[in-house]
Amino acid sequence: MRHFILTVAFAAISTLVSAQNDSSAFYIKKGLEEKEKGRTMEAFKNFEKAYSFDKKDKNAVAHLAKTLNELRKYPQARQKYLELESMGNPSLETYQQLMTLSFNMRQFPDAVKYANLVKKADPSAKTAYYIGKAYYSQENYGEAIKYLTIANAEDPQNPEAPYLVARSYADMMNFKQAIPFFEKSLALQPDNSRLMYEMGLIYYAIPDDKNSLKYFLMAAEKGYKRDNEFLENLAIAYLNNKEIDKGLDILSESLNRRPSDMNLLNMIAEANYDAKRYDAAISYWDKILSMDKQNASALYMIGMSYQKKGDKQKGMALCDKAIEMDPSLAKNKKKVEMPSGL
Question: In this structure, what CATH number is given to the domain that contains residue 43?
């Protein structure tokens, strides 16, 4: 009797599994028909039903993963490809999808892992860019440069590879070594105003004032947004190249936008002071004092400006008053009083 019951039970289980397999196959077939009609969402619904009947059906998981990817449901697609891999489907396509999805979802250790598996499965596959950018994003600049150099050889027309090499050197404060790679990237995308602006900043950091101004102006010509940051850097570049009037014009444009910006007022005052335009310098430091009467540094520089104008007594009195407010300014006075050459 017990043998009979077990036999019936096994038969029932076998029937159930067979029914599940039949249902899974039925919905996969329906899904493929919908896909052929261009109805991707309907195809997805059928593949999902197929999967619900048999979660171990590799065919159902593969179709579901692919359709999720096409529907741009990337996290779900990646999960299904991982599931497919765990089911013993180490195909090149699975590895390629996991490499791309992991990369786009910023899962960089996995991107490197699957890029290496793609390369192992297909030695001709171009995976170095994925690995190089993944390492760059993890701030591993040595490995990034190594693989991005290979990526540049694999695809010489990809401007991102030399750009990321340049960024790697720049992030290590090695600005001069970064320049040739910035230039290579710019040659491949000659209208990229953002890249021109970055190059202006890099040349400023070297420092190379002539080229810094050159690339800021190129960026402006190509339509880079004249926001506050850009205007300030462009003005500094003009001033560093002794083009005082142009620099001051730009700073004045910025001041119209930010009339109470203390740093900007101080920059304009200093630019006028360096250009020996002492009355103008005094007027801008006066504006600072009108907003902050305890600004000892502004008062001190007004005193210095009067001394430069020839009114030494008034200037020294203002400097002394500033030092009373902020004793740390005394070092500036001692520096001025030191004999030249010391």
Answer: 1.25.40.10
